[in-house]
Design a protein that fits this description.
Blueprint lengths: L1 E6 L3 H5 L5 H4 L5 E6 L10 H4 L5 E5 L9 E5 L5 E4 L12 E5 L4 E6 L7 H22 L4 E6 L23 H12 L2 E3 H6 L8 E2 L11 E2 L2 E6 L6 E6 L11 E5 L4
Parallel strand pairs: 1-2, 7-8
Antiparallel strand pairs: 1-14, 2-4, 3-4, 5-6, 6-7, 8-12, 9-12, 10-11, 13-14
Helix pairs in contact: 4-5
């Protein structure tokens, strides 16, 4: 079973570009989570809204053209839900949860904390509310979570760690939450597979020719709860795929339908 995650920074823009051949070339049999779609289902062209061979689930928040997530799955879920159960963290279109026979899957666009102290507090609160929810679901079966976490975990996960120590996305308090996540038994699958291989980034600023120079951040992840770790066969990033300021990431699990 192959799973993919991509912050597309606007599904309508990306799907109109040649780079969307990435999706067409996946070959089916996948679960694909998209973040920052910035569109409701009805705003998307039919062929992209419900691609052949997939069940499609869309969520857009109350603010038009902002946030939004979508999941395309070739595997029929047992159940589907949207957003966190905590009312404070509903309405921004950030989470789709699908239950499958072997695991709970969540596609999440975690908040960005760069708009000031209030949004940073919201981001950290969302983190904690999500972890509480995941831990509750985990009592039933393992967890797979993918998406844009908006935080680089360790210095190896961004090209300029020293220069960004006071930047949201690499603040000690944000990184400490990822430490907490790992301490609760959630495994960063890319590091599990690739080890301490440097220069693995998933987001690049549009400024200063950052992508061509690979001056990036790794803020997009697949985490699995450790009881699922024996099923992890591979994990990777696809920096050659353009069309967004993020690139797709992938995970392969040894699970049959």
């Amino acid at each position: 079973m192959k799973l993919y995650s991509w912050n597309v920074n606007g599904i309508r823009a990306v799907s109109a570009k040649p780079e969307w051949d990435w999706f067409r070339n996946l070959g089916g049999g996948c679960i694909v989570g998209l973040q920052e779609t910035k569109a409701a289902r009805e705003q998307v062209e039919q062929s992209h809204r419900e691609p052949a061979g997939y069940q499609a689930y869309w969520l857009l928040g109350q603010r038009k053209g902002y946030s939004g997530v979508a999941v395309f799955t070739a595997y029929a879920p047992l159940a589907v839900s949207y957003e966190l159960p905590h009312s404070r963290y509903q309405g921004e279109g950030r989470l789709i949860h699908l239950e499958f026979p072997d695991f709970h899957y969540m596609n999440v666009y975690f908040p960005n904390g760069q708009q000031g102290d209030e949004r940073l507090a919201y981001k950290l609160g969302y983190y904690d509310a999500w972890l509480e929810y995941a831990q509750e679901l985990r009592r039933q079966k393992p967890i797979v979570v993918c998406g844009d976490f908006n935080t680089a975990h360790k210095p190896i996960d961004l090209a300029r760690p020293r220069e960004n120590e006071n930047t949201s996305g690499f603040l000690p308090i944000e990184r400490a939450w990822l430490d907490k996540l790992a301490g609760c038994g959630y495994v960063d699958t890319l590091r599990h597979v690739q080890g301490d291989r440097p220069d693995l980034y998933t987001w690049w600023s549009f400024r200063m020719n950052a992508r061509a120079r690979n001056v990036g951040w790794r803020i997009d992840y697949f985490f699995v709860s450790d009881e699922l770790l024996p099923k992890v066969r591979d994990a990777w990033i696809e920096p050659e795929i353009k069309g967004s300021d993020h690139c797709p990431i992938g995970l392969e699990l040894d699970i049959t339908d």
